[in-house]
Amino acid sequence: MLVKLFNILREKILCEHCTGRLIGKTWPTLTYREKGLLLKAIIYAYSVNIGNPSENIVERKPCEICENIFDTINVDDLLEKVNAILEEYECDTFSTGVSIPKRIIEKEITVQKTLPSEMYVPLKRELNLLLRKVLLEKTGRKIDVNNPDIVFIFDVYRNEVNAIINPLYIYGRYRKYSRKLPQAIWFCPTCRGRGCSRCNWTGRKYPTAINELIGKPLMELCNAEDYKFHGSGREDVDVRMLGSGRPFIVELIKPKIRNIDLESAEKAINEQANGLIEVFGLRISSSAEVEKLKERAKMTGKVYGALIESRDPIDENKLERLEQIFHNTLIKQRTPTRVLHRRADKVRHKMVYIVKILPIDKKMFYATIYCQGGLYVKELITGDYGRTKPSFSKALNKSLKVIKLDVLGVERYT
Questions:
Q1: pTM summary value
Q2: Which candidate, 181, 241, 180, places its Cα nearest to that of 409?
Q3: Do both 173 and 293 map to the same domain?
Q4: 78 lies in which domain range?
Q5: 183 and 256 share a domain?
Q6: One of 92, 236, 315, 345 is an active-site residue; which one?
Q7: Same domain, 152 and 219
Q8: What is the per-residue pLDDT across 328-385, written as a single tens digit (0 to 9) for each?
């Protein structure tokens, strides 16, 4: 190893920082500069001892890896640029990254490949540690390498700082009380959002949507550029969402304000929603929880309440049999005809766990249905021309119609 280091320092002029990184993972109590000074002294003594001294070993300019960036880096100026960003964007935690020119990377690789990978420390790492330490001392913010509010990217060779403003995630649940409210904005099918006489030149089929009622107030409170709404599944436009509510996460893009009063945010959303929806349980979330929300959406248990009408009278004994037929029953469901224009035509397998029947009169009954997420409940009832098997309609041998449908509960997973 000593011979390898001797050959490198004899052939190339390196500053003490780049010399120290050759053995960066040894002597952990020393800085890279201190390691470099010590290593240069050891290697020079070795070269004299073997009768082959080289002035390159003790020389430090011009450094053939970093081009003496540690002499020219303007830390105060970079810090000033960071502070300018922090004046605009609220931030409790940060991380850092460093961008260096391709020519520097290529120079570094020629040296790095001659050494064991477990020893060499890249230039980016040393610069990163230097700048991270300065920011910790001067800004009062905390380091978070996994989920920072802001990532500062330093181009030290151009004396530039760029910032990646990470989203702010807010979790909550909503109840929906309207039967004329989609989860996402629904554009007019005639003009497709451009505006026409059919939609009164709004471009929309419905005036507003759940994502808008929740996302816009949060976007305004956080002074964010935009938002994304992530729901744990969705109900149809004409279906109410009651009970424990549906989980959602709002992803706020480039928020300038992060520390908001979530109770006040709930109040603002609910007041502006005018009784269409109600949100509750707002808390700070994360991108990891968004993935969890999406993964669990189709597996999460749902409870539905359906008011059902038959074209012909139904025998009450047959109604009671529905509870037995649909106890822990696998449903084979081909994509419903009503959503074929926007969903792939395939067969899905979903479970119905429990069905409770309450007769109302000879043609009408109420069903409470406990089932797996992702089941099309309307088609479970109607049969959808045989595309859903088994179905209430087939089991009763009656033509059935869903009068009203409500989601009564979405299983909690947090």
A1: 0.88
A2: 241
A3: yes
A4: 73-166
A5: yes
A6: 236
A7: no
A8: 999 999 999 999 988 899 999 999 999 999 999 999 999 999 999 889 999 999 999 9
